[in-house]
């Protein structure tokens, strides 16, 4: 009788142990999800889109693994826990790198705005020297319209910068810079042709 009671208790303890081992690491899952949310709130998806996508993909893969283990009688979560640790480290690293990346983008925007303003000023001078033949005036009118648009974009970029939307400001500034530089090249080539 004692042996049966002992065997019954041993079996119950073993089942309890196995069930305990087979429990999903919910605290770790929550920690990783919180870390991913913190990274997103810090705009990691804007400043590190590729890396942020990797973190999200890793977490999605971990959740698939967890569901697969849950479907088993005795799930094993050791590999899942290691993947969760790795994903947590990546998400935390992204959040830690945001401030430096924002500062880098901020300086790039400042430099580009200064550069564009110089090119715009030069373009205005070049427009006065541009050839004005039959079709020349129509081309110059079109260039002046494009210049107005570019100047408007620079003002919008400055507003975005002032609001702290540095990545949006950078994208707008890059587009304006390409336009201003293209006009600059076009004007210099037209003036050079006339001089020849």
Keywords:
rod-shaped; mainly alpha; 7 helices; 196 residues; single chain; 87% helix
Report the oligomer.
single chain
**Helix content range:** over 70%
The rounded Rg comes to 31 Å
**What class, by secondary structure content?**
mainly alpha
What would you call the shape? rod-shaped
Number of distinct helices: 7
Sketch the topology as an H/E string, one letter per element.
HHHHHHH
Largest sheet composition: none
**How many extended strands?**
0
Describe the structure.
This protein is mostly helical and 196 residues long. The chain folds into two domains: 18-99; 101-195, no CATH class. Helix content is 87%, strand content 0%. The chain is built from seven helices and no strands. It has helices spanning 2-21, 26-41, 44-47, 49-70, 78-129, 136-162, 166-195. The longest helix is centred in the middle third of the chain and has 52 residues, at 78-129. It starts with a helix and ends with a helix. Residues 16-21 have low confidence and may be disordered.
Tell me briefly what this model is.
The protein has 196 residues and is mainly α. The chain has helices at residues 2-21, 26-41, 44-47, 49-70, 78-129, 136-162, 166-195.
Furnish the topology, listing elements before pairings:
Layout: H1 2-21, H2 26-41, H3 44-47, H4 49-70, H5 78-129, H6 136-162, H7 166-195
Helix pairs in contact: 2-4, 2-5, 4-5, 5-6, 5-7, 6-7
């Amino acid at each position: 009788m004692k042996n049966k009671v002992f065997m019954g208790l041993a079996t119950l303890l073993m089942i309890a142990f196995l069930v305990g081992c087979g429990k999903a690491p919910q605290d770790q899952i929550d920690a990783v999800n919180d870390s991913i949310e913190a990274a997103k709130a810090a705009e990691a998806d804007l400043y590190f889109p590729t890396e942020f996508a990797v973190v999200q993909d890793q977490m999605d893969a971990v959740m698939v693994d967890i569901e697969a283990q849950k479907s088993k009688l005795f799930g094993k979560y050791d590999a899942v826990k290691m993947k969760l640790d790795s994903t947590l480290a990546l998400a935390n690293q992204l959040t830690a790198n945001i401030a430096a990346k924002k500062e880098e983008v901020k300086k790039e925007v400042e430099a580009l705005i200064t550069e564009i303003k110089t090119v715009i000023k030069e373009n205005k001078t070049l427009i006065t020297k541009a050839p004005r033949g039959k079709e020349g005036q129509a081309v110059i009118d079109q260039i002046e319209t494009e210049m107005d648009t570019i100047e408007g974009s620079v003002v919008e970029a400055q507003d975005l910068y002032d609001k702290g939307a540095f990545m949006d400001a950078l994208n707008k500034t890059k587009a304006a810079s390409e336009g201003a530089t293209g006009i600059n090249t076009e004007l210099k080539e037209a003036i050079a042709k006339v001089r020849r």
